[in-house]
């Protein structure tokens, strides 16, 4: 028998193609080497499956809505029965060849002929291996079917994608669970999963090893390589979920070609998912489409194409509308974008489509501000047309702004560091900009090594010019960027240790560090350095005593740019004036340190506690000097008056560090967790100046922001009711004849927090109303000055 269509793989993509083909009267056969819908079948029991992406409609004769694994499998089983889809399993395909216009498919059980073949084999059958000694031990597994059967075990999950973290969350209530993440943060997760895993880590229900790798497995233990040490972790069980690889040798044997020789390269297919071999189609995860709904749509679309029906990809209308200012077909528009912006040149067609779907396009007329220096935003901008100017507050009179032209990108410093914008960007004439959200860009960088390399090296070049030497030549900057190392450290990791011989110079890319000096048994905190500052130069400049004079420790998740000693000196030899500047600065630092050690201010003994409590994570923290405070509560009353009778400040609550009180009031964190998982999407926001504020009219009272705040500075309260009764009605109510006075408890709760009196040009009322100057609002750069330490 010659089949009209033979589908290799009975997963979601293959079943969708087979069901539609059978419904349309095509003779169809599915060959599946494992379970039907193996992708879903291998999920843990009762797992909730998302029907992402939400913006894309479903094209399939199979039902697929968000729900449990079991409900979805039953729905697909019913559809297979309904359309009488013929499935042979377990049967593995060994070879596919084309001869005289027909495909000959050889399996481990027989041979078949077909006019068309769809490869929907997925990649789950080819899981990535850890590749370390001991991975074949019986307690190391690449599958976890039912997390409920494990109790009181020490379990390690290797991987930080959605599937891995779902497994961690399912296991951690009844077991001691840790998770190994090769990156320095969780950034590839759905928002809900990201919030849940960070809550578990904060509550110490899960131990997270970031920037980590497996060294080896042993019975009962796993050795994990961290940035500064090797940890021996007790493990009764290890589950590995680090993705899977394309079965490239098999695909190439079938005649499928690839975009490049890179390991991450995808099969070359046209807009109908057809390979170089006419009639051989590649869909689903094996084609680079990792979401279930995408693969199901493709299965439907392939059959429509085989039937001779004209059909466009389901995202075509949305992309066409978004790019309506460009000429040509959608494919021609996407090619134009990739050709114009070198950063996108390595990106394959499908990831590019997805990126543009998530992006915002800005058509700017004339000179318009894109963002201002010190704004809080972290997206990346690509210049599709026109040019922009970058200016800085620190520019000298008459100094010209830096111009960036078509094809360039900007915003990578805030994207990667998470800090305020370092420059003001203004368009110069008509321009078209593509704004890519941070999560979408980080995901692209993780999947496309060439893109990550370009962004990282550009970041280093601009960081060197911005924070070290603005006159640095482009060729030297590029050379240094190419040689520089990006190092990641977790909170409390030691970056350099006092007494070690210095071999590198460091520029803080994101996060922050503290500098401590030890004399005997006493350790003293000397300084706190945020992103953009540098350290390590003292030991490199001192040829007589090249040892480190202090220990540098990360105070939060931190990334640094490391320049090795020889590269550091190459920079100084080209710019002796910079060497002189550094030597003068070192001399000032030594004098300040000596003065500081003589001062030994009592307040400094509390700096470590302030760091541990996250005080320095805030961008605008209220401090009250208890030695000056007269307990008049003017600050509380002023806050109450400003905010309609409901205070956002509780002076008698908070954390006390020596004579400094950090009262219960929002700190406007640099990385505000309260913004995560707001159902309305914009009830709580951060404006460009950094203030985190809540719009009461949009708040639905869900409490997510309050529960996500690590410091308990958001409150769920009943708003104070507004008096709407007329005077005569209020008088009648006194004798019981009028409408009752509105009560707060009758109104729904709303989230309430400090908003820095954002609508008052005079600034925070709490500070203005303090008669003794005890209340003060401070930024990270001011902390040490305010508490008596010597700043840089």
Describe the structure.
The chain has 5 domains: 2-125 and 246-306, FAD/NAD(P)-binding domain (3-Layer(bba) Sandwich); 140-240, FAD/NAD(P)-binding domain (3-Layer(bba) Sandwich); 319-323 and 346-447, Jelly Rolls; 481-598, Sandwich (Jelly Rolls); 611-786, no CATH class. The strands form 11 sheets. Strands 1, 2, 5, 6, 7, 8 and 17 form a 7-stranded mixed sheet that branches. A 5-stranded parallel sheet has the order 9-16-10-11-12. Strand 13 (213-218) and strand 14 (221-225) form a beta hairpin. The chain has 792 residues and is an alpha+beta fold. The longest helix has 24 residues, at 576-599. It is globular, with a radius of gyration of 30 Å. Helices cover 28% and strands 24% of the residues. The model is unreliable at 598-604 and 788-792 (pLDDT under 50).
Q: How is this fold's topology laid out?
A:
Layout: E1 2-8, H1 12-23, E2 28-31, H2 38-41, E3 48-49, E4 67-68, H3 69-83, E5 86-88, E6 93-99, E7 102-107, E8 111-119, E9 140-141, E10 154-158, H4 162-171, E11 176-180, H5 191-202, E12 206-209, E13 213-218, E14 221-225, E15 230-234, E16 237-240, H6 248-253, E17 280-282, H7 292-306, H8 316-322, H9 330-340, H10 349-358, E18 360-364, E19 369-371, E20 380-385, E21 387-391, E22 402-405, E23 409-410, H11 412-417, E24 424-427, E25 431-436, H12 438-447, H13 449-467, H14 474-483, E26 485-489, E27 494-496, E28 504-510, E29 512-519, E30 522-530, E31 534-535, H15 537-541, E32 551-554, E33 558-564, H16 565-574, H17 576-599, H18 607-612, E34 621-625, H19 634-642, E35 650-657, E36 660-664, E37 684-686, E38 692-694, H20 704-708, E39 715-717, H21 727-734, E40 750-752, H22 765-768, E41 775-778, H23 783-786
Parallel strand pairs: 1-2, 1-8, 2-5, 8-17, 9-16, 10-11, 10-16, 11-12
Antiparallel strand pairs: 3-4, 6-7, 7-8, 13-14, 14-15, 18-25, 19-24, 20-23, 20-25, 21-22, 21-24, 26-33, 27-32, 28-31, 28-33, 29-30, 29-32, 34-36, 34-41, 35-36, 37-38, 39-40
């Amino acid at each position: 028998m010659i089949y009209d269509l033979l589908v290799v793989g009975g997963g979601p993509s293959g079943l969708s193609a087979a069901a539609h083909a059978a419904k349309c009267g095509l003779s169809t056969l599915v060959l599946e080497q494992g379970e039907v819908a193996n992708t879903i079948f291998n999920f843990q029991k009762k797992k909730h499956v998302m029907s992402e992406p939400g913006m894309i409609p479903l094209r399939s004769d199979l039902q697929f809505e968000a729900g449990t694994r079991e409900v979805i499998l039953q729905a697909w089983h019913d559809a297979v029965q309904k359309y009488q889809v013929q499935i042979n399993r377990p049967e593995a395909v060994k070879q596919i060849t084309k001869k005289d216009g027909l495909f000959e498919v050889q399996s481990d059980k027989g041979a078949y002929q077909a006019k068309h073949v769809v490869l929907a084999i997925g990649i789950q059958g080819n899981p990535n291996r850890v590749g370390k000694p001991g991975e074949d031990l019986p307690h190391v597994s690449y599958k976890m079917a039912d997390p409920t059967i494990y109790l009181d075990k020490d379990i390690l999950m290797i991987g930080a994608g959605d599937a891995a973290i779902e497994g961690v969350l399912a296991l951690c209530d009844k077991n001691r669970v840790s998770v190994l993440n090769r990156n320095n943060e969780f950034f590839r997760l759905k928002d809900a999963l990201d919030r849940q895993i960070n809550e578990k880590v904060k509550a110490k229900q899960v131990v997270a090893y970031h920037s980590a790798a497996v060294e080896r497995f042993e019975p009962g233990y796993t050795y994990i390589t961290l940035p500064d040490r090797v940890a021996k972790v007790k493990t009764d069980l290890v589950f590995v979920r680090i993705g899977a690889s394309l079965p490239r040798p098999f695909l190439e044997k079938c005649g499928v070609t690839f975009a490049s020789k890179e390991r991450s390269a995808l099969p070359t297919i046209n807009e109908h998912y057809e390979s170089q071999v006419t009639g051989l189609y590649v869909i689903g995860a094996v084609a680079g489409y990792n979401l279930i709904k995408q693969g199901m749509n493709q299965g439907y679309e392939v059959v429509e194409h085989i039937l001779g029906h004209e059909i466009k990809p389901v995202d075509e209308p949305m992309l066409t509308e978004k790019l309506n200012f460009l000429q040509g077909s959608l494919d021609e528009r996407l090619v134009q974008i990739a050709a114009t912006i070198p950063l996108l040149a390595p990106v394959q067609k499908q990831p590019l489509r997805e990126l543009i779907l998530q992006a915002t396009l800005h058509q700017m007329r004339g000179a318009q501000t894109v963002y201002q220096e010190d704004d809080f935003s972290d997206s990346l901008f690509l210049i599709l047309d026109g040019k922009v100017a970058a200016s800085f507050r620190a520019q000298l009179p008459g100094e010209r702004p830096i111009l960036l032209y078509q094809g360039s990108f900007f915003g990578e410093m805030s994207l990667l560091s998470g800090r305020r914008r370092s420059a003001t960007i203004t368009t110069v004439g008509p321009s078209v900009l593509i704004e890519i959200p941070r999560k979408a860009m980080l995901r692209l960088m993780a999947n496309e090594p060439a893109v990550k390399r370009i962004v990282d090296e550009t970041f280093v070049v601009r960081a060197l010019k911005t924070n070290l030497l603005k006159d640095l030549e482009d060729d030297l900057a590029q050379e240094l960027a190419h040689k520089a190392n990006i190092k990641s450290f977790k909170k409390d990791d030691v970056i350099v240790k006092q007494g070690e011989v210095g071999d590198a110079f460091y520029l803080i890319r994101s996060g922050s560090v503290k500098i401590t000096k030890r004399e005997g048994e006493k350790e003293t905190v000397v300084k706190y350095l945020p992103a953009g500052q540098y350290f390590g130069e003292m030991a490199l400049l001192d040829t007589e005593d090249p040892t480190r004079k202090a220990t540098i420790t990360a105070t939060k998740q931190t990334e640094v740019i490391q320049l090795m000693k020889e590269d550091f000196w190459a920079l100084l030899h080209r710019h002796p004036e910079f060497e002189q500047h550094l030597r003068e600065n070192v001399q000032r630092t030594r004098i300040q340190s000596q003065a500081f050690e003589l001062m030994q201010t009592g307040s400094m003994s509390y700096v470590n506690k302030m760091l541990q409590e996250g005080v320095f994570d805030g961008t605008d923290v209220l401090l009250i000097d208890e030695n000056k405070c007269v307990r008049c509560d003017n600050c509380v009353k002023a806050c109450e008056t400003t905010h309609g009778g409901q205070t956002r400040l509780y002076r008698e609550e908070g954390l006390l560090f020596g004579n400094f009180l950090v009262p219960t009031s929002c700190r406007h964190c640099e990385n505000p967790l309260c913004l995560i998982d707001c159902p309305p999407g914009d009830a709580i926001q951060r404006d460009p100046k950094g203030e985190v504020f809540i719009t009461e009219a949009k708040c639905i009272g869900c409490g997510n922001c309050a529960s996500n705040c690590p410091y308990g500075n958001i409150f769920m309260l009943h708003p104070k009711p507004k008096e709407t009764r007329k005077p005569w009605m209020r008088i009648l109510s006194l004798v019981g004849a009028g409408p009752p006075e509105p009560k707060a408890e009758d109104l729904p709760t709303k989230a309430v927090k400090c908003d820095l009196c954002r609508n008052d040009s005079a600034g925070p009322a709490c500070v203005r109303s303090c008669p003794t100057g005890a209340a003060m609002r401070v930024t990270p750069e001011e902390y040490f000055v305010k508490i008596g330490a010597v700043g840089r």
